[in-house]
Write the structure tokens for this entry.
Amino acid sequence: MPHVFESAPTGRAKCRGCGATIPRGEQRFGERMPSPFGEGEMTLWFHPRCAAYKRPEAILMALAETPGDVPDREALERTAQASSAHRRLPRIDGAERAPSGQAKCRHCKQPIQKGTWRIRLVFFEEGRFMPGGFVHLDCRGDYFEGNDPREAMLHFSAGLSEDERRELMVAYGADRESEA
Ligand SMILES: [Zn+2]
Ligand SMILES: [Zn+2]
């Protein structure tokens, strides 16, 4: 079966990308794939925008194969194109302050100090997103090889308060960038 865009018939499915429930009547994207657990196929449900960040190739293929109206088609295409520009971008799962100093940065291998900002990573394997560790916020330039992770990072940081988001953007250097 091909991938699918549809209006959610129930409010029970959770988005694989962000973990939030997809309300009934909202647009959702179903990525079909062979079940890794045996026979048949399975469908992974996403908010279309979450899939554009985390499964860009799948949603680009689906958009190309879906001739009819897909809400926000152009925005989804733009997001997915940007995310597929570098193999590490779809790993972005948000930003957070390190709750302890135990994790090491995947890029520089140094510990991430407690309380400092880090970017969460996930890896897609056999139909699931697995925790993939963290990188220092300041290692983003090297880890993503110059690609800007900001949009996806903010998109998957819904758990942050307004104040925390402001602090994150200060740490990110957005102030400096906008002055430049
Ligand atoms: Zn989502
Ligand atoms: Zn680092």
In short: The chain has seven helices and six strands.
